[in-house]
Amino acid sequence: MENRPPLEKTETKRLNIMLPEELMERVQSYCNEKNMTIQEFATDAIIEKLNLVYKERRKKGRL
């Protein structure tokens, strides 16, 4: 997450979400410590979650 290359130029869409103030403060603090943007943090978190979901589905499915 640190010293990462610039994001590739890809088509993007806006995602607006509401978060509890305390959670947003924690995210902002973490991002400041790691010198990353909230967009980078959110993108990484979504990718990680989707990867976990995919792995769980692969474990369950084959009968």
Describe the structure.
With about 60 residues, the chain is mainly alpha-helical. The chain has a domain at about 20-60. Helices cover about 60% and strands about 0% of the residues. It contains two helices and no strands.
Mean pLDDT: 87
Shape: extended
Q: Which stretches are poorly predicted, pLDDT < 50 over at least 5 residues? A: none
Order of helices and strands: HH
Structural class: mainly alpha
Radius of gyration: 15 Å
- The tally of helices reads 2
What share of the residues lie within helices? 55-70%
**Spatial gap, N to C terminus:** 38 Å
SSE order and pairing:
Layout lengths: L20 H14 L3 H24 L2
Write a brief caption for the model.
Helices cover 60% and strands 0% of the residues. With 63 residues, the protein is mainly α.
Task: Kindly list the characteristics that best describe this protein.
single chain, 63 residues, 2 helices, mainly alpha, 60% helix
